[in-house]
Amino acid sequence: MNIKKKLRSVLPASWIRSLSILRNPCLLHKTYGQRLAPFLRVSAGAHASDVDTLKARLRMYAHILEKGIRRRDFEPGHGSAIHSQAITCLARLACNDDESVRWARAIVAEYEVLQRGAPTHKFSPPHASPLTAEQSLAFLQSRSSCRDLSDAPVPEDAFLQMAEAAQQAATSCNRQTLRMFCASGNEAALGLLGCFKGFTGFGRGVQAGIVFAVDLRPYDFPRELFVPAVDSSLGVQNAVMQAHAIGLSVTLLSWGNSTPADEEKLRRLAGIPDYCLILVGAVVGFPLSNPEKPARMPARDILRIIRSGK
After folding, report:
1. Tens digit of pLDDT for each residue in 110-153?
2. Domain 133-285 CATH class label
3. Which of 77, 200, 210, 251 could cross-link with 145 by S-S, CB 3.0 to 4.6 Å?
């Protein structure tokens, strides 16, 4: 009898539950280990020199510098350690010139100029929203998940539009770690989406699917254990709303009930590397009907306002 069974045989059930919640190593369910495996692989540091990792860290350092130089009370003499780390990344990315690297290089250059006592940044007026508050809320309220889909093919340009929308989402320190693995065509879509337990409610005519994942390499674990999910979820929401804007329905599929066999198959079919954490799947298609949207809780039920002086 192993130690886990021995403990279960002698300890009260309430103790077992408490120890499980505390994640005692002797009682840790194997599912925890499976879920933590991608984080453990990345935290070992094997990908620290990857180009994508360096670019994400460069964006992070540049973002931190930018926060300082955009302050109205900016004073020289701060941020030298972050500046040094940014310079190191730029040196290792000397041959890489994508738009985000050029942005970071410009921020570093501006920081250096300001350290020499140049005039501070000139602030531009705020942008006006192209939508009124009522229009924005009405658009959000109009989206629903439709399982009654046409078998018409989904243009691959739609994936690009969704990715462009996802890239506009806020991410911690501008790391931009969402990744989209898109299946175009019936055979490819059925293969990828068939790895998700929630796909059983759909017909066999689905023409497109997406696996959303997050690149874990730029994060520091365990300190930032939940940050990747927050960063990527904001992008997923943008992508879903952009699909709605171009007439597509997106239904998200949970990855929570997946098995190791499901994960192995999905990674193989979609080419998802081991440093990416699979987040959620998405069935994509043209809706044939407008399903009734489930009722939402009143907004006031999720809202708490903390007022000054109270």
Report:
1. 999 999 887 766 788 888 999 999 999 999 999 999 999 999 99
2. alpha beta
3. 251
